[in-house]
């Protein structure tokens, strides 16, 4: 077993403990995965996906598993759910999926306007899923559109809720997040 005592390259990390082992999942090819017994020394594991999930290739033409974004993990009744974002790198096509040993499905997506050029800000970008439970509902928060572009940034956070962990998540108007829905929570100042 090779242990890494150096800094671990981790973009958008999320961690969970199972028994005496910690697992960290990060943005990277197939979702980067690391394990540790003490959170100081980390071992690189095989990525979550050795090849792109079939649904992802169909939903996002050009997705090649080279960059699977911003994972989040949770457990419910002994089952683990790993949420993640996919897109064709540099394109305005994105979806959010969930991985579970016996289940694969889309839980949030942004329909893309095929008439717009890929450089158009805000058309179909989606990332950073985060889910938590409050009362009888699970809430899925996700980010839409573009960040980090100065005055051209259109980044915003939206939410949907569901009575079951894996779907369907709907916004206030009853539109499913997998159909591009989402209730606005916060957005940048347009001035």
From TrEMBL:
The keyword Hydrolase applies. It comes from Hymenobacter roseosalivarius DSM 11622. Belongs to the glycosyl hydrolase 43 family. Pathway: Glycan metabolism; L-arabinan degradation. Keywords: Glycosidase, Hydrolase. The keyword Hydrolase applies. This is Glycoside hydrolase family 43. One of its GO terms (molecular function) is hydrolase activity, hydrolyzing O-glycosyl compounds. InterPro entries: GH43_arabinanases, Glyco_hydro_43, Glyco_hydro_beta-prop_sf.
């Amino acid at each position: 077993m090779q242990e890494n005592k150096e800094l671990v390259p981790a973009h958008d990390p999320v961690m969970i403990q199972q028994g005496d082992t910690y697992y960290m999942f990060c943005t990277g090819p197939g979702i980067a995965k690391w394990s540790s017994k003490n959170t100081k020394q980390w071992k690189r594991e095989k990525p979550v996906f050795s090849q792109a999930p079939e649904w992802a290739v169909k939903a996002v033409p050009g997705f090649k598993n080279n960059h699977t974004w911003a994972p989040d993990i949770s457990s419910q009744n002994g089952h683990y759910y790993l949420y993640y974002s996919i897109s064709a790198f540099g394109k305005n096509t994105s979806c959010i999926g969930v991985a579970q040993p016996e289940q694969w499905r889309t839980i949030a997506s942004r329909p893309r306007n095929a008439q717009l050029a890929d450089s158009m800000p805000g058309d179909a970008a989606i990332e950073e899923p985060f889910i938590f439970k409050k009362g009888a509902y699970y809430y899925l928060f996700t980010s839409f559109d573009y960040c980090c572009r100065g005055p051209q940034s259109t980044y915003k956070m939206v939410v949907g809720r569901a009575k079951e962990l894996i779907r369907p998540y709907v916004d206030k108007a009853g539109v499913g997040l997998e159909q591009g829905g989402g209730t606005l929570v916060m957005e940048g100042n347009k001035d």
